[in-house]
Amino acid sequence: MKKFLLGFIIALLLVPVAVWAYISFGNPPVAVADPPFPFERQIARSPLHARIDREMPRTAPIDATETNLEAGAHIYRQDCAACHGLPGRHSDFAAYMYPDAPQLWKQHRQGVVGVSDDPPGETYWKVDNGIRLSGMPAFNKILTQTQMWQVTLLLADAEKPMPASVQGVLQPPLAPDAPAASSPPGAARPKAK
Length: 193
Hints:
This protein is mainly α and about 190 residues long. About 45% of the residues lie in helices and about 0% in strands. α3 crosses α6 (about 145-155), α3 (about 65-80) runs parallel beside α7 (about 165-170) and α5 crosses α6.
């Protein structure tokens, strides 16, 4: 019995030492291209969703008016589009992040666009607090609560028709070699092929 207890105690001491050595010598998957730990996604998602469900606001303090949606579009264009894309133009590097940054104007699952099927309070919580180890920053020191709600309401309505003023703000830029929609008189136009 003494040998069993001694072996058990030694095993208990060796486990933390082995974990420390594994981490200290750079073995964990820390590069984006590395395969994830077993059950990494499940381990990270469960506490995240539980916390969001517990803390997210249940109602928005502002309405989804054209003015608020347009303000949200300007903020989105400035602070979010690089990772989360624009309507008709996905982010070039989002798929190379880990976890990959969702494209918030892309249609998926039965016609849902981006996070428009999530409760607005969930999206607000993510904008406000960020998501650890994902590249999603917390905007609570950068944007006001009103600004974060404006972006949230914009994304909640992503699958609905947007006012022209909002569409204009979210219009993807032209590619460098694409002709402008209207050129000034006398401007050179690209030759047709």
